[in-house]
């Protein structure tokens, strides 16, 4: 795909930064879910 | 016979003669000395800057053959930098050393880790505007990841001629985080915002969550950004080894022996890319300036995102913690704690900032992985 520098830069900003935000947002939700699914128990403290 | 002896002796002074002919080498010998001084006297990233500085001196000694075919540093470079192996091995060590508990206890801090990556993409735009080719601009922007191995991985792959400048910028500015960040943090926040006290209410994280974290990140991140899978996978492998607790020997080797040996080889190889004629160019100074800008922009965007969270939560989040959303771990978190206590002795921001900082560590790797996959999607790389 041929593109000028301006189009390339804006695409990287939108898709790159947007993709980073969405990916980390998704991962943050998944970690929240994991925390709810597997809550901390006293045994975890003893093992760790 | 006298003639032969004189000819033989003249071979011993030819290096000194050339030293004054090739002024670029002479300047780079001083640069190498400067890097050693920074590392030894100022304690700036000494683990990296000592081998980089020494490698820089070695390659700039006239008639040095260390980087010629079969030269000893060239062999190391070809084996570990050209193949992108060294940054990945270091990532296993980083994963084994990093405790992602604070970010798992407060998953919203992942978002602060994302905001701290804006500098990468804004700097990329500026580099393109200044006329750098696309992949050079990508490598310059990646300095904003504040993450040496990520910057080296991307640059060695797509703009190897910029490796010396990018690596030196990444590691030097990373060590200057305690100097660079506070003025920006202070300028962008109000007195009231700086004094915000944050309660730490997060519960401890279960062992199962800590074990699943590296696996989930690798699977999800790898599916979204497969081009960055080696980066993600290595850091997560190191973390899985640490959290599993069943491979203490491997974990110990990854964070000590392997990381130490690779750091030495990586530093020497990078230093050896700083040969005078190739390094002393206006382009290098521009790259150093853009790298500085990238790290400042990361801090600006992180703090601004923190301010947005401050407004959205009705003043419960101190915007200063946004500055920790970069990859310089745990230095950036300590900076936040220090600045916070300057304004409010009762403010204890460290645990929140550690979350943002660990989020920044993941964020920088995800940003690089996403960037590579977007480039592949556009057909710029294969």
- Shape label of chain B: globular
Number of domains of chain B: 1
SSE arrangement of chain A, N to C: HH
For the termini of chain B, the CA-CA separation is 62 Å
**Count the helices of chain B. How many?**
20
- Radius of gyration of chain B, CA atoms, in whole angstroms: 22 Å
Radius of gyration of chain A: 20 Å
Termini gap of chain A: 52 Å
Structural class of chain B: mainly alpha
Low-confidence stretches of chain A: none
Largest β-sheet summary of chain B: none
The chain-level mean pLDDT of chain B equals: 92
Strand share of the residues of chain B? under 5%
What structural class do helix, strand and pairing data of chain A support? mainly alpha
Instruction: Please outline the major beta sheet of chain A.
Output: none
Number of strands of chain A: 0
Strand content of chain A: under 5%
Q: Could you say which overall geometry of chain A the principal axes of the C-alpha atoms support?
A: rod-shaped
Number of strands of chain B: 0
Please mark out the parts of chain B with pLDDT under 50 across 5 or more consecutive residues, or reply none: none
| Helix content bin of chain B | over 70%
Descriptive notes:
The complex is a heterodimer of chains A (48) and B (382). By secondary structure, chain A is mainly α. In chain A, 81% of the residues lie in helices and 0% in strands. Chain A has two helices and no strands. Chain A has helices spanning 5-37, 42-47. Chain A starts with a helix and ends with a helix. The mean pLDDT of chain A is 88. Chain B is an all-alpha fold. In chain B, helix 10 (148-158) packs antiparallel against helix 11 and helix 19 (331-343) packs across helix 20. Chains A and B meet through helix 1 and helix 2 of A and helix 7, helix 8, helix 9, helix 14 and helix 20 of B.
């Amino acid at each position: 795909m041929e593109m000028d520098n301006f189009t390339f830069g804006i695409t990287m900003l939108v898709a790159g930064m947007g993709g980073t935000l969405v990916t980390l947002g998704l991962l943050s939700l998944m970690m929240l879910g994991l925390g709810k699914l597997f809550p901390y128990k006293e045994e975890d403290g003893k093992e760790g | 016979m006298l003639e032969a002896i004189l000819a033989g002796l003249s071979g011993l002074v030819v290096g000194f003669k050339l030293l004054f002919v090739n002024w670029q080498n002479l300047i780079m010998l001083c640069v190498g000395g400067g890097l050693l001084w920074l590392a030894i006297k100022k304690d700036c990233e000494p683990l990296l800057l000592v081998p980089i500085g020494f490698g820089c001196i070695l390659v700039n000694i006239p008639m040095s053959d260390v980087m010629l075919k079969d030269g000893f540093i060239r062999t190391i470079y070809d084996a570990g930098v050209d193949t992108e192996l060294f940054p990945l091995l270091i990532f296993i060590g980083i994963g084994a050393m990093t405790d992602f508990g604070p970010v798992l206890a407060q998953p919203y801090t992942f978002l602060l880790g994302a905001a701290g990556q804006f500098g990468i993409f804004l700097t990329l735009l500026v580099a393109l505007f200044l006329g750098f080719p696309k992949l050079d601009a990508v490598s310059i922007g990646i300095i904003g990841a504040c993450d040496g191995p990520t910057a080296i991985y991307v640059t060695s792959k797509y703009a190897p001629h910029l490796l010396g400048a990018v690596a030196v910028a990444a590691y030097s500015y990373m060590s200057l985080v305690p100097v660079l960040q506070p003025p920006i943090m202070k300028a962008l926040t109000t007195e009231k915002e700086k004094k915000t006290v944050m309660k730490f209410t997060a519960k401890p994280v279960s062992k199962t969550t800590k074990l699943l974290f590296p696996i989930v990140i690798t699977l999800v991140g790898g599916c979204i950004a497969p081009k960055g899978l080696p980066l993600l996978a290595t850091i997560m492998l190191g973390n899985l080894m640490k959290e599993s607790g069943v491979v203490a020997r491997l974990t110990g080797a990854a964070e000590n022996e392997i990381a130490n040996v690779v750091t030495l080889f990586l530093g020497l190889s990078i230093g050896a890319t700083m040969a005078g004629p190739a390094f002393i160019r206006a382009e290098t100074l521009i790259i150093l300036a853009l790298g500085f800008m990238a790290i400042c922009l990361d801090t600006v965007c992180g703090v601004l995102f923190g301010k947005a969270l401050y407004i959205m939560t009705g003043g419960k989040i101190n915007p200063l913690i946004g500055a920790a959303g970069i990859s310089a771990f745990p230095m950036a978190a300590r900076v936040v704690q220090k600045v916070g206590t300057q304004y409010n002795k009762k403010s204890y921001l460290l645990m929140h900032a550690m979350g943002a900082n660990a989020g920044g560590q993941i964020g920088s790797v995800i940003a690089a992985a996403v960037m590579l996959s977007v480039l592949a999607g556009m057909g710029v790389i294969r």
